[in-house]
Amino acid sequence: MAEKHQDPAKQLGEFLRLRREQLSPERAGLIKGPRRRTPGLRREEVAQLSYVSTTWYTWLEQGRGIAVSPRSLSHIASALQLSQAERDYLFSLAELADPLNPVALSCEPDVKAIVMMITTPCYIMNGAWQVVAWNPQAAVLFDGWLLDGQTPNMLEFIFLNPLARQLVSDWPERAQRIVAELRAESIHLEKTAPLRTTIDHLLLQSAEFAQWWQKHHVIHREGGQRSFQHPQQGLLHYQQTTWQLAPDLTTKLVTLIPLSEAKT
C-alpha cells in the first residue's frame, strides 16, 4: 500500500513528539519525580527548556501549522538533544535553515569542475553572496569583474560597482528584487559574520540599498529572463536558473542560458 501523504506540519509535530518521548528527564537534566505517566519529557518541560510557551509548543507538536522562527526551532532541537542528522531533518520539515550551520565560503573542487564544463555563463555563489567559482563565459559576460585569485561579492557588485548599472539593463528593478530576496534569506543568515558585515557596509555606502532594505519587502528567489547591455556584444538576453547545492543549501549554482538556446 502506498504511503499516505502527510502534511509537513503534522510530520514535524509527530517527529517532535517521538523525540520528546525518547528523551528521559535525567538526560535532560531534570528531576524525574515520583508520579510520571508520560514517557520521556512532558510538553511543558520541553517548552521550558526551549524558552517558549507551553501553549505555543503544544500547538507546534499538534501540527497546527503555526509560524516558527529558526531561532525557536533551534532552541527546541537543542532541548531535545537532537543529533545533527535529526536537526537537519527537523529544519527540512520546517523548510528553514539551521542558524547554527555556518555559511560555506567555498565549494568542493569537483563542483567547480562541473562549472567549467558548462558552456554558457555559470557561477557558484555561497550564502554570503560571494562568487566562489565561475567559468570563462561568466567572466566575459561580467566584463572584467570576475578575476582569478579573488572572491568577489555579488551584492557589492550590484550596489557599489558602477559597471553593474551599465551592464544590468533593468538595474533599478533587479536591484530592488535582490534586496527583497536577501531580506527573505537573511532571517537565518544575517547574524553570520560574512553576510552581516556586507549588509552593514551596504547600509552605509549605498543609499538605494539602505532605502529598500528598510521597506522589509521579501520575495523568494526565482529564475527568469535576465538582460545585460554588454559593452562589446550589445543587448543580451538569458534564462537564469538557480540550483541549491547539497548539503549546504545556502550555496547556489547559477546558469545563464541564451534565450535562443533555451527555446530550442
CATH class of the largest domain reads Alpha Beta
Radius of gyration: 23 Å
| CATH architecture tag of the largest domain | 2-Layer Sandwich
What is the chain-wise order of helices and strands?
Answer: HHHHHHEEHHHHHHEEEH
Report low-confidence residues grouped into runs of 5 or more.
1-5
Question: How would you describe this structure to a colleague?
Answer:
The chain is α+β, with helices and mostly antiparallel strands and 264 residues long. The protein folds into two domains: 8-94, lambda repressor-like DNA-binding domains (434 Repressor (Amino-terminal Domain)), CATH 1.10.260; 109-262, Beta-Lactamase, CATH 3.30.450. The protein has helices at 8-22, 43-50, 54-61, 70-79, 84-94, 109-117, 136-141, 154-160, 162-167, 171-185, 193-205, 207-213, 259-262, and strands at 122-125, 131-134, 224-230, 234-244, 252-258. It has a five-stranded antiparallel β-sheet. Strand 4 (234-244) and strand 5 (252-258) form a beta hairpin. Helix 4 packs antiparallel against helix 5 (84-94). The longest helix has 15 residues, at 8-22. The chain is elongated. The model is unreliable at 1-5 (pLDDT under 50).
